[in-house]
Structure to design on (255 residues):
């Protein structure tokens, strides 16, 4: 019953939405490397959000505990 | 779909951030990655953008790549995630792709109304179910390959396909079509 349902649906889908293979647009028509190079040049590696969160946490800690500044400088 | 493999030294150099090695891998695998993505999103322009996005993610994650693993399989997993993110942001009613810009109807015996209603129902599927259904039912990719690309078990793929079929059946019934 379950398999019949699936087969019927598959037949309907393949009648209404052709598989991609062998159709226009199925194959890559041109080299994408120039586009990749542009993207590599335009988007330098981003700083992850958790690094910013860590930096913010340290800043908050220093505001509320200024006495910790010499300690932090000692360990830097 | 064959998974192309690369000499281990290129993979090792890539994992250390070497741009030439990345270019070599890009040139070898771009067609394969594009072919996989276009099967999922069924839109050549979006597939080209997503191929670049996939390789951008691969470039950023180079240090996490294990050279002992298959680059092709890893790239396919990254590509599937990029396609999934795209499907999550594309709105179902407004972003119906032209189904690979084919002017020919898939089957002349199928009415335009049935084709449109089926396509609409299909694009209402939640993205995770849509990927599984597209690859398994339309593209007839092996369940094992789909499972590897999605990072889940073969049984989980079968469950997703089953849920997709149930969703489509209910959606089509609601529109007065008995599949």
């Amino acid at each position: 019953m379950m398999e019949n349902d699936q087969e019927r649906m598959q037949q309907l889908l393949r009648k209404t939405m052709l598989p991609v293979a062998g159709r226009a647009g199925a194959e890559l028509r041109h080299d994408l490397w120039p586009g990749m190079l542009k993207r590599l040049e335009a988007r330098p590696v981003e700083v992850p959000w958790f690094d910013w969160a860590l930096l913010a946490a340290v800043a908050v800690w220093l505001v509320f505990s200024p006495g910790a500044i010499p300690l932090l400088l000692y360990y830097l | 779909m064959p998974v192309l493999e690369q000499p281990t030294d290129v993979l090792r150099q890539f994992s250390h951030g070497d741009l030439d090695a990345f270019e070599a891998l890009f040139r070898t695998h771009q067609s394969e990655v594009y072919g996989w993505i276009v099967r999922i999103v069924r839109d050549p322009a979006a597939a080209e953008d997503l191929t670049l996005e996939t390789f951008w993610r691969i470039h950023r994650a180079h240090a996490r790549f294990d050279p002992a693993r298959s680059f092709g399989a890893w790239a396919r997993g990254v590509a599937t995630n990029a396609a999934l993110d795209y499907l999550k942001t594309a709105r179902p009613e407004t972003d119906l792709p032209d189904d690979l810009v084919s002017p020919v109807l898939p089957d002349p015996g199928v009415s335009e109304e049935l084709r449109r209603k089926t396509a609409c129902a299909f694009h209402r599927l939640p993205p995770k179910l849509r990927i599984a259904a597209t690859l398994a039912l339309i593209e007839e990719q092996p369940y094992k390959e789909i499972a590897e690309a999605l990072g889940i078990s073969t049984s989980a793929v079968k469950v997703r396909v089953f849920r997709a079929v149930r969703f489509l059946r209910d959606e089509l019934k609601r529109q007065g079509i008995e599949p």
User: Anything to note?
Assistant: Residues 76 and 141 of chain B are 13 Å apart (CA to CA). Residues 19-41 of chain B form the longest helix (23 residues).
